[in-house]
Write a structure and sequence with these properties.
This protein is mainly α. The protein has one domain. It has four helices and no strands. Helix 2 crosses helix 4. The longest helix is centred in the C-terminal third of the chain and has 20 residues. The protein is globular, with a radius of gyration of 14 Å.
């Protein structure tokens, strides 16, 4: 997909992906996992190691569908 509208940095693309996932009702916790962010809460970081593979897969599929929809609008 061609990206227009200025300079797109990796951070800008991550932020846009997170914003779109949020608008698609993806759980904030799943969005954080998709972005590979480190858990801020030390207890959760230490004891909860769920990878959420299915949830992340669904989130990325929703994002892909939304990007495909956006790219068709001209």
């Amino acid at each position: 997909m061609q990206l227009t509208g200025g300079k797109w940095t990796p951070h800008a693309l991550s932020r846009t992906a997170a914003t779109l996932m949020g608008s698609l009702k993806v759980s904030p916790h799943v969005i954080e996992k998709c972005l590979n962010h480190m858990e801020e809460n030390r207890m959760i970081r230490t004891y909860q190691h769920a990878a959420l593979f299915d949830e992340r897969k669904d989130a990325f599929e929703k994002l892909g569908e939304k990007l495909a929809e956006i790219s068709l609008v001209k």
